[in-house]
Specification:
By secondary structure, this protein is mainly alpha-helical. It is about 45% helix and about 5% strand. It has helices at about 10-20, 25-60, 65-85, 115-140, 145-150; strands at about 95, 100, 200, 205. The strands form two sheets. It has a two-stranded antiparallel sheet with strand order 1-2. A two-stranded antiparallel ribbon has the order 3-4. The protein starts with 11 loop residues before the first helix and ends with a strand.
């Protein structure tokens, strides 16, 4: 039984050139997180149809000029930062048939949990910026990619224009009175008139 080979949107050299990870880190520890970054976060932005279209284009060397530019300017920076964010907790660990062990060096000291949380938050800020930047570009350039404007009806994971998540789910934006919430992407049409773009209406109350 044959399966479609994994397509990586960034190379080891690209990742090392765009993150502070040193060259002596084993790429085999990082490459699985490239795939996760593409499937979890890039696919969230461009949808399953878009991810499949770009994967096929890379694999078959058939990317259009616009797709090549999109890959260089938007896809690769996003994938690199989300890969770094995903792999950070695991770089110092080794999973064997004996146990999950922590690697160390006589010349360095591993970061503690608080330091790791701070570093991951900083990296995620960068990753979400690139994701927001991609969403905004796609919204500003309709008609550039048919796979984005007209995705397959049965997408397993449809695209979304949400880039940031602060840990609070507002819920039911049109169904009940509540807190005012921002509707992404910037400049999108809002049902709330006379209160600027981006704000939404909750129930019978306009914010």
């Amino acid at each position: 039984m044959s399966f479609t080979p994994v397509v990586y949107f960034i190379s080891q050299d690209y990742f090392l050139a765009n993150t502070p990870v040193e060259k002596n880190v084993d790429w085999d520890k990082i490459s699985p997180y490239v795939v996760q970054a593409q499937q979890l976060y890039l696919q969230q932005t461009i949808g399953e149809t878009g991810l499949n279209a770009l994967s096929d284009g890379v694999k078959n060397n058939t990317l259009s000029v616009d797709e090549q530019t999109f890959m260089r300017n938007y896809v690769q920076p996003l994938v690199a930062q989300y890969t770094f964010w995903l792999c950070l907790p695991f770089i110092n660990y080794k999973a064997t048939n004996k146990a999950l062990s922590k690697e160390s060096s006589e010349y360095s000291q591993a970061a503690d949990l608080d330091e790791m949380k701070f570093l991951r938050n900083s990296v995620k800020d960068a990753a979400e910026f690139y994701q927001r930047r991609m969403v905004k570009w796609l919204a500003d350039h309709p008609g550039t990619f048919t796979w984005y404007d007209n995705p397959n009806a049965l997408d397993n994971l449809p695209k979304t224009n949400q880039s940031y998540f602060g840990g609070i789910y507002m819920g039911y934006p049109y169904g009940a009175e509540g807190y005012n919430a921002w509707l992404e992407p910037y400049g999108s049409t809002s049902p709330c008139t006379s209160c600027g773009t981006g704000w939404i209406r909750r129930g019978n109350v306009t914010y």
